[in-house]
Amino acid sequence: MSAARSVYLTANVAILIFLIAPLAVIAIFALNPTPYIQFPPVGVTWRWFQKFWASPEFTNSLVLSLEVAFAVVVLSMAIGGAAAIGLERGRLPGARLVTALFLTPLMLPAILTGLAMFQLLLSFGIGRPVWALVLGHTVVAVPYVIRTTLAVLSEFDRRVEEAAAVLGATPTRVFAEVTLPLIRPGVFAGGVFAFITSFDQFPISLFLVTPGHETLPVVMFNYMKFDLDGTIAAASMVSILLAVGVVFIIDRLVGLRATVAI
Amino acid sequence: MSDRISRRAALVGAGAGLAMVAAPHVARAQAATLKITTWGGKWGDVMKGEVLPAFEREFKCKVEADQAFPFLPKLAASPTSAPLYDVLHTNSNEQWSALDQGLVMDKLTVREVPNIKDVYPYAVSDRIVGVSIFTSAIGLGYRTDKGLAPPTSWKDLADPKLAGVRGAYQIPVNSLGQSHLLLLGQLYGKGYQDLDAAYKALEALKPIKMVDFTGQMEKMILSGEVTMAVIHDSGILRYEGQNQPTEFAAPREGVLSLEQVLNVTPGSKVKELAFAFCDYMLRPDVQKKLAEAVWYSPANKTVSLDKKYADRLFITPEKVATLIQTDWKWYNARKDAIDARVARIMRA
User: Fold this and answer.
1) Which residues from chain B sit within 8 angstroms of residue A222, using beta carbons?
2) Which fold has domain A51-260?
3) Per residue in B232-256, pLDDT tens?
């Protein structure tokens, strides 16, 4: 093995360890019987997972987080996908400015977006319904879908669409049977990011959740302030496993290779 | 007469049907809703499990209890004429900030909250905005298995043997850290407002482990990551009976008071209900239930606690006299400068 290859492998292993080590610590904390982080662990227990699943506060927030995240995925894929097509194909005046505007939520600190939305909702007397929470998450999720879809569209061979049109397909049919399948990896990749962004979203949720309807990250934060025990680690493990599960499902649906290639 | 249903009849029927379906919701909507803030953890469990349902039944209302921080920025961002909360429960420092912004009433009196007649003077002193319903005593928590003599003075935290294993709080974000800083001025300087002496004493405590939340500090003491730390008594006493090698010491110079304060927002649409809630929280039975659940010292002096709690909590005039209340108005006015200076000290 050449020296360069050894360095390359070592660097990769080091990065892998750097990425996995925090997860390992969480797993140890989640399975350790003591209510604090202890190394080496003194045993193995499921009590923190049991406590997590037995707590209506945690389970309800998990369900709400999942519901919101799925709604955000659908909305952001629809809005982001359509916006990307419009920006790429629409020959819109000021398309660059509009693209920049769509990406603004990524540049602003999310806590400011949350606070601004909170004030807006209250000043209109709307309150904080769940749809506002979905909307808030969608605002920061849409840019991911736009970016990933634009990346696919920039590589898009338009001659395929022209061929379909020449063969007699209507514009609607061309869109449904040619354009959509080809941009699907980009839209789905954005959907994965949208899911993760929403499921982990904390700063925006902090302002938009209502009593009794808190998302999992908010409940975890509040719990940590008073009871920092293994339940938090168990909740983190559940979150991680769910995120991995979603990536797995996406892989089944569209193929992870296509998604990763973007 | 036609058998067919006329459009008008259909509309009337549909309207009546909708009204029937909506009736329970309308009835519920008519019941007043009291919006409050409250803590999580065991406190939140008792509040949501027992205290609030009992209040709702007695006052025929609905209580919306927000446990999601940060309370004050959310209240500040809501219109003052339609505040997000009717009752604000925070520690004392935040109540003073809220008062500065016109978000809470400056005083609650016996007229609005009759049970105030039974509280210890500290609960409605000039250091309190609103009314303190409980207090914890901030002192020193320590490990009993490290061969240390139990601390008797705040100055014991500066013992060189504790370098790197003593704990306190991130001063910009934690009121325990802030009140401890002022106490350092009193201990090592000319008084609570002697910030120069306080900064010097803080510097002398380095290396010190600083955390944001008291919950983190509890775990650091339990895990042995720190041997001695500034902490409120409930953070140690709540593990009583679990064979943990930890103990709480009340230094002879006095203990800092960590008050749980309730106040009412001036723009509340259900102010009478908000006052009733404050009064309810001061009832002896409610005070006893919460005090024994979370080891907080009740402010109502007529409360009779079980011996185990009575022996440890601050419920006698002698013990209450040792509580030191921080001048938050003075502190908040200088907070930005203090934060900047502390940040420099801790970075150095």
Assistant:
1) 40, 67-69
2) MetI-like fold (1.10.3720)
3) 999 999 998 888 999 999 999 999 9
